[in-house]
Amino acid sequence: MRPVRRGDRGPAVTEIRGVLLGLALLTPGTSATTDEFGPDIEHAVRAFQQSRGLSVDGQVGAETWRALDAARWRLGARTLYHAIPDPLTGEDVRTLQERLLEMGYDVGRADSIYGIQTARAVAQFQREVGLSPDGTCGPHTMHALRRLGRKVVGGRPQLLRESDAIRQSGPNLMGKVIVIDPGHGGSDPGIVVPDGGLRWTEAELAYDLANRLRGRLVAAGMRVHLTRGPVPAAVLPDLARAELANELGGDLFISLHTDGHANPEADGVATYHYGTDNGVTSTFGERLAGLVQREIVARTGMRDCQVHAKTWELLRLTRMPAVRVEVGYLTSPVDLARLTNPGFRDHVVEAIVAAVQRMYFPIEQDVPTGSIDVSELRAAVAAGAPK
User: Which of 8, 14, 9, 19 is CA-nearest to residue 64?
Assistant: First the structure.
């Protein structure tokens, strides 16, 4: 799908305008032309993207359109149930999931998809309030939800569940599964920067980082999968990458990218995890993002562009702690010189390996940033000793 952007005309623009009007992000009559993507629509799209934790570019690509389409629904406007093979999706589903999470029920990730885990959580709630436990959220279930307050206090129940799962898996990396996602690829090179007679692309650098990371994590005892090879035949959308990570049963998911900006002075590293503007977050995705960010900054000296919550499908739909790392700006002469240096890329990879190891240390046994010697992890595995 080619993004719909400013200056475009047609039925798609009319539909986008209608959705934005329904969300009260547009004022009726602000433009005489209803089928033109003008500045009023661009401003409204940017406001919507900002509020939903999407990339704010003012264009309606596939992910923004799916978010707009989902936003049409408000909880209580329709009956929700587990539909097969095409599950119901929408803002109403996410609101229900967040409400159930607040009450202590396990819906997994608040991913806006009414899947089997959400249906089971609804059925458990219905059973406990004396309703027929059919897993369908209709008027009676909505009435019961409105009457009841939070069930769990003194901490987030999702945090307790995720903490227990991490603790039971133990501190060793041996046997754990990680999915590494080199961004872009195929006919999508990502950011492209000429450098004399050379041409550096985000896709090639992301794959190089991913391949180096794979080697070190395999040496540390992990089972590693990449979402693509060095020259994929086709572009893999983020939605498909998330589905692949789920099918592979990953314990962790790390997506590698570089960034770009019109201002060549923009540089540094940033890391992203799933989270919404109302505080719902992947607790251990947030922890992994913080560890990766701090380790890279400490070991490379890159500018710290902080950790951020986003609702990108790549992060929202993966069922394991997931992060996306933007390792520098190819449009920055400073970062470009770093990223095109294989030794520097090794430092970045070692930082990520150290962060992955720290993910599995109990909080009370965590170590200072930059203190893990990655070569010792490999040596311990080679010697058959526990890490």
Answer: 19
